[in-house]
Amino acid sequence: MTNSRMNPKVDGFLRKSKKWKEEFEKLRNIVLDCGLTEDFKWMHPCYTLENKNIVLIHGFKDYCALLFHKGALLQDAHGILIQQTENVQAARQIRFTNVQEIIEMEPILKAYIYEAIEVEKAGLEVDFKAKTELAFPEEFQKKVDENPDLKTAFDALTPGRQRAYILYFSVPKQSKTRESRVEKYMQHILDGKGLND
């Protein structure tokens, strides 16, 4: 089946896929049936509407999944959407362990994809948790208090970048380690960069 919306990079991805090949192909057909444009982002098949990401197909060791970029806004009538980790705010997955599950769920999957398309068309946005909910580790708070420029630079970062820093700074149990992480990334923050930029 050739479809003008198919992306050759996804063909290449499918050729290389060993573990979930059949599942990926079935998911691809279902998503393309819903009229989305096939793209290849973050090393995975990604489906867009007017260049906005709607759904992504990806595989892990124990399951493959459809990832809805704004899954948190879907009704989830069947209670099948999964939040990957507690830090993921917007995206939600539907997971599969075999192609049979995908075949049986096809009508439900299409309903979810169509709903995700409607969410995008309506311009709905996920309301990211307010920054105030992020507790600054005291080592970072101290630096911010001492350096107004650092506070300004941090406040100018996107919520996702802020969150990544706070989580990264908060992880170590020892204050000394937290402090060295803060020291190491202060210039990064002042330069307006995210943790991984």
List the main descriptive attributes of the protein structure presented here.
single chain; 197 residues; alpha+beta; Aspartate Aminotransferase, domain 1; 2 domains
How would you describe this structure to a colleague?
This protein is of the alpha+beta class and 197 residues long. The chain folds into two domains: 8-121, Alpha-Beta Complex (Aspartate Aminotransferase, domain 1), CATH 3.90.1150; 131-190, no CATH class. It has helices spanning 8-16, 21-33, 99-121, 138-146, 148-156, 159-170, 175-190; strands at 37-41, 44-49, 52-59, 64-68, 92-96. It has a five-stranded antiparallel β-sheet, with helices on one face. A hairpin with a 2-residue loop joins strand 1 (37-41) and strand 2. Helix 2 (21-33) packs parallel to helix 3 (99-121) and helix 4 (138-146) crosses helix 5. The longest helix has 23 residues, at 99-121. The relative contact order is 0.10.
How is this fold's topology laid out?
Blueprint: H1 8-16, H2 21-33, E1 37-41, E2 44-49, E3 52-59, E4 64-68, E5 92-96, H3 99-121, H4 138-146, H5 148-156, H6 159-170, H7 175-190
Antiparallel strand pairs: 1-2, 2-3, 3-4, 4-5
